[in-house]
Amino acid sequence: MTRGPDLRQRKKRADSGRVSWPLFFSHIALPDENNCMEWVGPAGEATLGFKYGRHGARTAHRMAYEYWHGPIPHGLVIDHVYAWGCRSTLCCAPDHLEAVTQAENVARGHKGALFTHCQSGHEMTSANTYVRKDGRGRQCRRCKADRERIRQRALKEAG
């Protein structure tokens, strides 16, 4: 039975802090018909490719962005730009990745793009849409105001 390198040696290499770009790019497929360059290495539960290194796991698309565009500006996240036909969260193509705010990323997202009306049927326009402060979701302003009125009425009646 042939054994691979000792686990301690693997960890030592992973902890060296140096990114082996040839190894990294060996896990990225050649461009497809949409010019997507998909990560074919290990993937997490959210179908984002990841790479282990000295600072823990890092997503492949963030590493690819940093390789081609430089450091990610503080407060921004990397968006897979659906407008250019990219539907894959595994894509690492340089022109399919853009640094945006979390709110913009949510608004652009596939589910967000399909979400044109709230559950009550109100249109989700920029004037009628509240983006959460943490940037992780959108709400209909009219429904939010209705819920707040109901909550305030219940508080008033209770006490």
TrEMBL record:
Keywords: Endonuclease, Hydrolase, Nuclease. GO terms for molecular function: endonuclease activity. This is HNH endonuclease. It comes from the Bacteria. Signal peptide: none annotated. The lineage of its organism: Bacteria, Bacillati, Actinomycetota, Actinomycetes, Streptosporangiales. Residues 59-106 form the HNH nuclease domain. The keyword Zinc-finger does not apply. It comes from Actinomadura rubrisoli. Coiled coil: none annotated.
